Amino acid sequence: MSTREVTIVNQSKKVIKQSKPPKKARKPISPKIWIPIIAVLSILLVVGLIIDSIYKRPIITVDDEKLYMDDLKYYFFNVELAYDKNTQIFGPSYMDMPVNEQSGIRIRDIAKQDAVDAALSNEIMYREAVAKGYSLTDEDNETINSTIDDMLENVFTEAEVKKNGFTREYLTEVLTRTTLAERYQNDLLESFDIDTEKIREGFDVEEYRQYEIEYFFITTQTLDEDSKSIPLDDSKKKEAKEKLLSLTSDAENTEDWSTLLPEDEEDVKYHEANFLKNDTFFSEEFKAMMMDMENGEVSQLHEEENGYYIVRMKDNNSMARYEDAVESAIDEEKQEAFHKYYQENIQPNHTYKVNQDYLMSLRMGQLTLDR
After folding, report:
1. pTM listed for this prediction
2. For residue 179, which of 151, 137, 131, 146 has the smallest C-alpha distance?
3. Number of C-alpha atoms within 13 angstroms, CB side, residue 67?
4. pLDDT tens figures, 203-237
5. Can you tell me the distance from the alpha carbon of 63 to that of 352, in angstroms, rounded to the nearest whole number?
6. How far apart (Å, rounded) are the C-alpha atoms in residues 335 and 118?
């Protein structure tokens, strides 16, 4: 490139550089412009809240009070947690198992209805309790606080607390309602005239006579290649028998049998059990032998198909199972009486509505759980 050409290029660069418009100083935006912008944003926010309020659908309405999902998450959580235990056992498809093939109702639909029923009855009973002057006692408040501590520490995951808004304030409000509702319900249950003697007469004491035993056991079986139980050979059975007799040689003179076995003992097992004459996994011969034993009596070595036993009878006439059966029957009759009283004398005092259309959109299983 010639000297003249270089000079022309350099001059051209200067001209281009000099031809750029000078930078203008930024002027602050006038408050007159910000004011309408803020006003518009505020209006949009208010409109958004109004729209959200309009389209936020309640699940149930009780006495004109609308209760939304946020209000009822505690009830949904309890039901989902209960059903989740079965999900852990039967697998993730459990909630979709059909209850009624023709109607298409599945377990998750039953769970959803359980949550709504629990919330509705509790809200109605809470209102009844308050109307009748029920209020929290100091003991109630202490119980509520300790229950919340336990829930936050041992029941809810951190994710569930955040997901559901399970703050201490929220839980206190919910547990206040459930506590008053339950106290009023318990008072009603105790007020019903139940013929307990007639209920007792309906149970055969001898049929429910419970035999309480403790025993040592060593198996005489092992597993083959197909994991099927097969008997030990005679020499190993003899070893098992001798080991059991050796470890329990002082059984008759020992009050606490659980102390007889070394901590690292794996073959000989110690168990406590109870049975009824018509409800036991023991063989007929073994059962008959034990039913003839006196309290505190120790049996001789007894051989069953699966192994050797040494038994001590702790109580051959326990009434525990009989009392459980009677109490269960009494509770059932009380619940039936309450259900009738609730439908005839409590529920009619309140107006309520369940938003079935909204419920259809809710899928039980992980609405509140996060674990």
Report:
1. 0.72
2. 137
3. 21
4. 999 999 999 999 999 999 999 999 999 999 999 99
5. 6
6. 15
